[in-house]
Design goal:
Mean pLDDT: 77
Number of strands: 5
Number of helices: 4
Largest sheet: 5 strands, antiparallel
Strand content: 15-25%
Shape: rod-shaped
Order of helices and strands: HHEHHEEEE
Helix content: 40-55%
Number of domains: 1
Strand order of the largest sheet: 3-2-1-4-5
Length: 152
């Protein structure tokens, strides 16, 4: 009976730790890290660079919870005594990590985003990250409106 309480405690602890890694943000690129207050208004400039970046996948924590439970159950089948407890804990943590990664990949993890460097007319330099570049090319004259870049 003590073993099942230990397993339950390990599952809950690993789930709590890994759930802290989950993000509630719907758009990780619209957090102000790249887009300054000036770029949220309108401005004109020239594209200096365009780089493709890989966006992180969004997770709710459900993948970590399910993965942790499956990993703990698999680890509990190994060994006996203290070895069984260690295998259960390692299985729970490993399963939670794998489950979280599977959920991130399934939710569009790794989608391409475009980091666009713009030299504004006033001499400032802005970096805007958006999901597409359409017909934008280096050297194009552009306008920045509400954190998005458009050809001008």
């Amino acid at each position: 009976m003590k073993s099942t309480h230990t397993i339950a405690a390990l599952i809950i602890a690993s789930t709590a730790v890994l759930s802290g890694c989950a993000s509630n943000s719907t758009d990780p690129y619209n957090n102000g890290a790249y887009n300054s207050p000036v770029s949220s208004s309108m401005g004109y400039g020239t594209i200096d660079s365009i780089q493709v970046t890989r966006g992180p996948g969004q997770t709710s924590g459900a993948g970590a919870i399910v993965g942790g439970m499956v990993g703990a159950l698999a680890g509990h089948q190994v060994g006996g005594g203290d070895g069984k407890k260690i295998a259960t804990a390692v299985g729970a943590v490993g399963g939670a990590l794998v489950g979280n990664q599977i959920e991130a990949n399934r939710n569009g993890g790794g989608r391409d985003m475009y980091q666009i460097g713009i030299r504004l007319e006033n001499g400032d330099y802005r970096t805007i990250v958006q999901d597409s570049v359409y017909d934008l090319r280096i050297g194009n004259r552009v306008r920045v409106v509400d954190g998005r870049v458009y050809r001008y």
